[in-house]
Amino acid sequence: MPHRQPGTSLRVARELYLEVTKDPSARPVVVASWQRSMEHKVKSGSLDAPYLDNPNLESPLARAALPIVDRLHEQLADDPVSMMITDRNGVVLSRKVSHEGLTTNLNRVRLAPGHVFAERYVGTNGIGTALASGRPVMIAGLEHYVEALRDFHCAAVPILHPTRRTLLGAFNLTTIRQGSDGMLMAFARSVAAQIEGEIAAITSRRERALFHDYMEACSSVRPGPVLAMSRDVVMMNDQLSAAVTGPDHDALLDHARELADNPRAEGTRSLALPSGRVAELRISRCRREDSDAGAVFRVRLIGRPQPGPAALVTTPVRSDLGLVGSSPHWLRAVADSRAEFVAGTWLHLSGEAGVGKRTLVETLHRAHGAGRRLEMMQPPLSDAPAVTEGWLHDIAALLAVPSNVLVLRDFHLVSDQLRQRLRKLLTHLDGTATGQLVVTSQPSMAGADDQLDQLCGALVEVPPLRHRHGDIELLARFFLRKYRPSGESRFSPDALTMLQRCPWPQNVHQLESVMRKLARRPSGPTIHAEDLPPECRVSSHKVLTTIEALERDAILHGLMNRNANVQRTAQDLGISRATMYRKMRRYGIVPSNLT
């Protein structure tokens, strides 16, 4: 291909296309694709199809399409035709081909599962152009923008959601034969229609099943407020929509969505609403055909709405214990912990890392532990018999003193064998004059330990920061004043919005760290969104190691300096574009959120 500066007009793209293909009857859809390829700065002389680990084979598209493609593959055995399913981003989810020669050619150009064939990476091609244009396309021979693909003939058809008509992905047929373009396209259209029909059937069966369970709950003898939810559907009866409004409505849907997305979430859960009421949710899973269709929630509202705080908060709200926060869920956890601590009950505090379990215990001890000694112990660093024996001996010695308060931190890190030995020790001590025991653990990492909870006498769940939406501003102001006592600062609306949208995977500990960094940097009286560190701009709930956090921040800083240009940022960091996208997906980085 002649070297030419990339242009952005259709005229330049058409001229380049005619120069390469010598085809005077250039199709507009192909020329428009060449134009986009030039704007994406795709190199025609080299192929760069990024690779992503673990393509999602559990999506509705994959579940519907893969059995159909498997059946057709048996019928086309030994024919030099490959069938592929891609998601809406051009990631190849599945490839079926039984012709050895074609397999070799496809592998040579990386047209295989996990690789991305969107136009922005490989230019004009069947998959990428069908997804970009939203219409069935046939891309044959020299119509491909990248030279390495010009041996192939590809017929691709977009696959749309049957009701929402949103793009789900594409079905693609690829061959090296010439003269069969019409048959290829007809076959591709037929298969795409079959896949859409199967998606419609699966969706319909699941939605009908969820609707059936929802109506059954609504028509029971005493229905009350009812909510049904899946990834695509939200249904609520009039009783619920009338009883729960405003912030309570948003909080209820947010928590219910987390529960509905977790197939293991069943039973009864309690949720403190912003108004001060408590919503008791009785969860029933809707399971059909070995798949989860969502959940039905029977809702019971307890209490009456309490007067809310003033709309303009100027000082952090603090309880009589000195703990910042006014969300009902947090206040209930504090009140329950306080009652059990004062009563001397053995207590189990469960909550994600950084929610403030240790701070809560230390605060309760300062307020109600006069004359009592607070001791904290971590799990043993080794499972060696001498180490574990010493650890158990220390616990027994500390609990033998009635005036001691012993906190066993990070109990989720204790091995199953050591847990059993500890339970025997605690069972032996139970009922005698002992010190008070407080156990802290992370619920996502610790398995159910009913015997321990029975010994402890009380279990209190400390809520994550993302469930304390109204407290984020209060805590941010508190920490900013703590680390910048001499300065007056306030947050702009865009900065507050960004803080409240951040998932805070490390909870209050992470928010404090962010405010401490802000306080150390010179700034004006108002903190804007651009003043916040990059970690406030991600959507991932994953807790990162120190090295991972440094890598994430380097990527975020690079993208922000390059106006969210992924390719140039990857070049600056010395990594491939495929690696860049894989890390962005891992860290929850969305380029559009950075501009």
TrEMBL record:
Transmembrane segments: none annotated. Residues 312-520 form the Sigma-54 factor interaction domain. Keywords: ATP-binding, DNA-binding, Nucleotide-binding, Transcription, Transcription regulation. Pfam families: AAA_lid_14 (PF25601), GAF (PF01590), HTH_8 (PF02954). The keyword DNA repair does not apply. The keyword Nucleotide-binding applies. InterPro entries: AAA_lid_NorR, GAF, GAF-like_dom_sf, Homeodomain-like_sf, HTH_Fis, P-loop_NTPase, Sigma_54_int. PANTHER family: TRANSCRIPTIONAL REGULATORY PROTEIN. This is GAF domain-containing protein.
